[in-house]
Design goal:
Helices cover 46% and strands 16% of the residues. It is built from 11 helices and 11 strands. Helix 1 packs antiparallel against helix 3. The longest helix has 29 residues.
């Protein structure tokens, strides 16, 4: 199906129209503005769904658990940052539905258990986070979103056995990953970003700062290995889906980086921050310590939710 664009321009395919809805939210470190034709991987997959008159399926690994650092987050359960992000994703699907009547669905692939031992967050807190995420989706009527996690794959196996299964079957070797970090700039940036998060999220460490940094660099490799493994497992279970990412992605990459909310840098996520509502109604994400200086705390359903600028 073709849609007519402005006079004097060539008509755009439905797939390109759908991708144009995603482009304003592209999370990338590239400076140049890109058009839909710069994303052949995504266009090909979207076009497949359009030809079949089927809902466009988008998979988004993320929403793992809250950072354990109280200077960054309000607690261990989803709050307004997640609520706004989920609403944004559902609204984006609704916009796609106006162009492509079968609509779209985002499968949120909650990955906290995949590397919970490496980020030092207890499994029971990860379960509580994912359960509350599902509750927010259900209570807000966000019918275009679903949550997929290791419980959907490996049931009630102990968490350590689940992690071992995913790592053993899907993770790249450490040597291969080290070589990639040395030669590939985006992978190096990812490695450095994860190392920084691990350092910031470590509340107590008995050794020196340099020893902590060495340990976090080691754990960062493990997080990337498990993240890659989770991505491959998702591809097995959702082989035709359009793959989104909460990490910045270059133009034309197989994964499409997506920005959920306004934030001071491209690495900030709702689970590493809190939401602050500005006086003009805009929302932005920032560390808890900064939001506390700028606004007043607001509770929702008896729990801390977000800040409002005073």
């Amino acid at each position: 199906m073709l849609l007519t664009t402005a006079p004097g321009t060539l008509p755009q395919s439905t797939g390109a129209q759908i991708l144009n809805l995603l482009l304003p939210h592209h999370r990338t470190t590239d400076q140049a503005h890109a058009t839909a034709d710069a994303f052949p991987h995504q266009l090909r997959r979207i076009d497949d769904f359009v030809r079949e008159a089927a809902p466009v399926v988008l998979t988004l690994p993320g929403f793992p658990c809250k950072s354990p650092n109280p200077a960054k987050t309000l607690g261990h359960l989803p709050d307004m940052g997640e609520r706004l992000s989920l609403t944004f994703l559902d609204t984006l699907c609704a916009e796609i539905e106006k162009i492509h009547p079968p609509g779209a669905q985002v499968v949120i692939c909650s990955d906290g258990h995949v590397f919970g031992d490496l980020i030092r967050v207890p499994d029971e807190r990860i379960d509580a986070y994912a359960d509350e995420l599902r509750a927010q989706i259900r209570e807000s009527g966000l019918r275009r979103l679903t949550v997929f996690d290791l419980r959907d794959v490996l049931g009630d196996l102990p968490h350590d056995r689940k992690r071992a299964h995913v790592h053993d079957h899907y993770a790249p070797t450490l040597d291969a990953l080290r070589a990639e970090v040395r030669t590939d700039a985006p992978t190096l940036a990812l490695y450095r970003g994860i190392t920084r998060f691990l350092v910031e999220d470590t509340a107590e460490f008995p050794g020196t700062r340099s020893a902590l940094q060495r340990e976090c660099r080691r754990r960062a490799y493990g997080v990337i290995q498990r993240s890659r493994a989770w991505g491959r497992l998702i591809a097995d279970h959702h082989p035709r889906a359009v793959r989104l990412s909460i990490h910045p992605q270059p133009v034309g990459a197989a994964k499409f980086g997506i920005r959920l909310l306004d934030a001071p840098d491209v690495w900030t996520t709702p689970w590493h921050s809190v939401a602050l509502r500005e006086t003009d109604g805009r929302w932005t994400l920032m560390p808890h310590a900064r939001a506390r200086r700028l606004g007043r705390l607001v509770h929702r359903d008896g729990r801390p939710s977000h800040y409002e600028r005073e």
